[in-house]
Amino acid sequence: MKRYYSFTVLLVLLLTAGLFAVVKITGTDDFSQNNEDVLLLNELAHKMVLDDMPPENTEREYVILDRNGNAIYDNRSNYSEVITVETAMQKCYPYTYIIENNQITGSVVLTDSRKQFDRLRTDIIAVYCVCGFLLIGAAAAFGAYIRKAILLPFARMKEFASYVAAGDLDRPLEMDKGNLFGAFSESFDIMREELKASRAREQELIASLSHDLKTPVTGIKLTSELMAAVFAQNKGQEITVTEDMIVKMNNIYKRADEIALLVGDLFASTLEDLGAFKIKCSDENSAVIAELVSEYDDRRLVRISEIPQVIVHMDKLRLSQVIGNILFNSYKYADTPIDISFRLDESFLEVSIRDSGPGVPEDEIGLITNKFYRGKEHGDKEGSGLGLYIARILMDKMGGELSVRSENGLCVTLLIPLS
Questions:
Q1: DSSP string for 87-140
Q2: Which one, of 158, 129, 144, 168, lies nearest residue 16 by Cα?
Q3: pTM of the shown model
């Protein structure tokens, strides 16, 4: 805005200099006779030579002088000024001599030419001043508009950005749809609301993960305390490993695995936010998929069909994480047998993982792979809403795809690129 003020001051100075130049140029006494004045003077002088009488002319004011400088004809409305040839020269009145027989017998002086020029000069200065004031007014109005429509909204958005940067997400941005940035102001306020909602979701996630972690940790502690008590009672004696002890040991392993999965989901989500997911794809035999499934099928609910013998391009560790998240979700929400089938596409190996649970409502099917989203009908289940989200992100980064549909249960389809 300072540059605009400087431009306005410069404009005023230029207009002032221009006005001074107009006054100076039009105020000089050195100006030429126009053609009309020359013709009129010649006509009057010729008439005096022929008729010795001036023509009747009421439109222009002039004086006819004899050879001695005395006025012999004067049709001026004001006779206060004495007109001579010397006066005409001093005041630049148009004049000419009356020449008869090669002798000067008189002269003709036009006395209204200067008045016409003065009126024209006044009109020029008046028009210049009016245009100058209009231009300055337009510049001032444009400046006021720029300040109201652009600078003030920008200042408010700058102040709003400082509040957001300081973590104050409760202060809304005032929206004025009358300025050029009304839509942007609304978008910035929507961003604030989304940031606020995201913070709330993160807090809910932390609370949910804290709750989810407490359950397996409590199970581990109770089992460990029970086993410690058994060992204490049988101290110094040979201990027989019973079936119940094996079950409890397996329970510790499962609980620890649950903790690892929860922490892994949270860490993977954080990596995705930072854009730090590391994917190292290599060529693998498709038979490795059966090994990955068996790692997570601790309930023995999976029924896997024959795998086409092809070479796929994938990150084995990340695909293991994808399959683990899908099976874990199926165990939690469906708890039914899981069928895994395969089909070869032109450039992908299609893997379909289907359970026989209640599935997902049609209006939620496109949302369950979003971050932190949990189905409305499963709000009582423990979870963070990250499993399928992370699985989808990992498949995208491996050059594949994850899609979900609900048909007599939930079916998750993976497209793994062929080598």
A1: HHHHHT--EEEEEETTEEEEEEEESSHHHHHHHHHHHHHHHHHHHHHHHHHHHH
A2: 129
A3: 0.45
